[in-house]
Amino acid sequence: MSDNNVSAEYQPISMWGYFGYELLFAIPVVGFIILLVFAFGGTSNKNVKNFARSKFCCAIIAVVLSVVLFAILAATGVAAEVFGG
């Protein structure tokens, strides 16, 4: 199936497109804002929107795991030694 027969809403993302979005979303503050805009409807392309949503879910999981790990370290007293408390 040719890409010309696909509507703009479902146009596939190329390999370089994924690479570019990864670089764009990796920018510390601006990238996160753009990630939120794309994830919550800033683009009409469903593939870009779903890719941004998956990156956002990964960010949420990373934050939750970091908080849980820090809580475990704080409860065992290791955090005080590591972070100078």
Structure characterization notes:
The chain has helices at about 15-25, 30-40, 45-75, 80. It has four helices and no strands. It has one domain (about 5-80). The protein is elongated and about 60 Å long.
Mean pLDDT: 90
E-strand count: 0
| Count of folded domains | 1
Gyration radius (Cα, Å) is 18 Å
Distance between the termini: 61 Å
Strand/helix succession: HHHH
- Helical stretch count? 4
What key attributes describe this structure?
single chain, 85 residues, mainly alpha
Question: What's the SSE blueprint?
Answer:
Blueprint: H1 15-25, H2 30-39, H3 46-76, H4 78-82
Helix pairs in contact: 2-3
Q: Would you kindly provide a brief summary of this structure?
A:
67% of the residues lie in helices and 0% in strands. It has 4 helices and no strands. It is elongated, with a radius of gyration of 18 Å.
